[in-house]
From TrEMBL:
It comes from Emticicia oligotrophica (strain DSM 17448 / CIP 109782 / MTCC 6937 / GPTSA100-15). The lineage of its organism: Bacteria, Pseudomonadati, Bacteroidota, Cytophagia, Cytophagales. 4-imidazolone-5-propanoate binds at residues 85, 148, 181, 249, 325. Belongs to the metallo-dependent hydrolases superfamily. HutI family. Binds 1 zinc or iron ion per subunit. It comes from the Bacteria. N-formimidoyl-L-glutamate binds at residues 148, 322, 324. This is Imidazolonepropionase.
Length: 409
């Protein structure tokens, strides 16, 4: 297929690398461009003026002045869950904190009870609807975590649902084993008992059935300590699972340091962060993944993105789509939020949600930019005056069409 009359073709890169600090403000584009696709892949692009249409035999699609961008790479989600938790949303409005809700057996434990009561097929159906909705908002690659099972059968059930989604969906999907999301009620006073269950009973099955690409731990006061996190990461490493860590959401938890020490692909959240963590990340290969939708929903402080960019850190943005702290996978809104509340430039936010998001789940060879040989995963906008209009006009759906692997959805 030949796509013509693209007003701006965004994220055009001959080769890609993980963007850090000041580089993140550079989002290469072509004005008035064409794009050629063969099967699932991008094979060529260029300026309209260089195109001789009389020689073209391909099917032609006229973009009629749309902006075309790579689809979003959402590298941190929990979209496999049962039901919803708007009762806790009301409690939070009335002043109860996220940590207090968790202490009373709500939060993650509330979702764990529902997972136990819900069949694999029903879970798949619910997650599939969420996936369809975010695909229409431009998401073309996604990481999905377990972590609401909190038992051998519950965690395996969640991971098998993710496995089915991988087989069924045209989206690129990565799966993360997050049994260490919280302690189930029965192990509240016996942390080592649950950790042994994770290491001795869950991990061998997860590995032998190839149910996960990564391992994650919620390293946080009241959840998993640094020592417990290390114990789980070391066990995961023996099975070839690289870490992605929930770090520094509520406290200076040591999550960044333990993630960097164990060469985590990403440390995620980072709402509560000091110069020590910033220096630690800046001197590492680990990506800092910011989840500002969670800070928005929980009325928390936002991560200091400008300070982190100034320190030359590689940042990714992800939705954290989950029932407790971010019941939304809306990346256009996330980009607007990042510009408005964290003062990221539109280019920085788009890079963080595309190419760096792809690196944050190790799929950058296939997606995240408009590059020859990569998948034709593309967003076509409605008429807009400039790229900055996307986050400026927050809340408005400016996506006209989404293409995944060369097919309009
Ligand atoms: N912080 C830990 N986990 C999720 C929230 C899970 C929940 O409340 O259900 C998060 O990333 O925000
Ligand atoms: Zn999360």
């Amino acid at each position: 297929m030949l796509i013509i009359n693209i007003k701006q073709l965004i994220g055009v890169r001959e080769k890609t690398h993980l963007l850090r600090g000041a580089e993140m403000a550079d989002l290469p584009l072509l004005e008035n461009a064409f794009l050629k696709i063969e099967g699932e892949e991008i094979v060529n692009y260029g300026l309209m003026q260089a195109l001789d249409l009389s020689n073209e035999t391909d099917e032609i699609y006229d973009a009629k002045g749309a902006f075309v961008l790579p689809t979003w790479c959402d590298s941190h989600t929990h979209i496999v869950y049962a039901g919803s938790r708007e009762n806790e949303f009301i409690d939070k409005i009335k002043g109860v904190s996220y940590a207090e809700i968790a202490k009373k057996g709500g939060g993650i434990l509330n979702s764990a009870t529902r997972i136990a009561e819900t069949s694999e097929s029903e879970l798949l159906e619910q997650a599939w609807q969420r996936l369809e909705a975010i695909k229409n908002l431009g998401t073309g690659a996604i990481e999905i975590k377990s972590g609401y099972g909190l038992s051998v059968s519950g965690e395996l059930k969640m991971l098998r649902v993710i496995q089915q989604i991988k087989e069924k969906s045209p989206l690129l999907i990565k799966s993360t084993f997050l049994a260490a999301h919280t302690y189930p009620q029965s192990f509240k006073e016996n942390h080592q008992g649950y950790i042994r269950q994770i290491i001795d009973e869950m991990l061998p099955i997860v590995a032998s059935e190839k149910l996960a690409d990564y391992i994650d731990v919620f390293c946080e006061e009241g959840f998993f300590s640094v020592a417990e996190t290390e114990q789980i990461l070391e066990a995961g490493y023996k099975y070839g699972l690289k870490p992605k860590i929930h770090a520094n959401q509520l406290n200076l938890s040591g999550g960044v340091q333990v993630g960097v020490k164990h060469q985590a692909i990403t440390v995620d959240h980072l709402e509560t962060i000091s110069q020590t963590e910033i220096d630690c990340l800046a001197n590492s290969k680990t990506i800092g993944t910011l989840l500002p939708s969670a800070a928005f929903f929980l009325r928390m402080q936002y991560p200091p993105a400008r300070q982190m960019l100034g320190a030359n850190i590689a940042l990714a943005l992800a939705s954290d789509f989950n029932p407790g702290s971010s019941p939304s996978g809306n990346i256009p809104f996330l980009i607007a939020l990042s510009c408005i509340q964290m003062k990221m430039l539109p280019e920085e936010a788009i890079n963080a949600a595309t190419i760096n998001g792809a690196y944050a789940m190790e799929v950058a060879e296939q997606v995240g930019s408009v590059t020859k040989g990569k998948l034709a995963n593309l967003i076509f906008t409605k008429p807009i005056s400039s790229l900055a209009y996307l986050p400026y006009s927050f809340g408005e759906n400016l996506i006209d069409k989404v293409m995944i692997k060369g097919r309009f959805q």
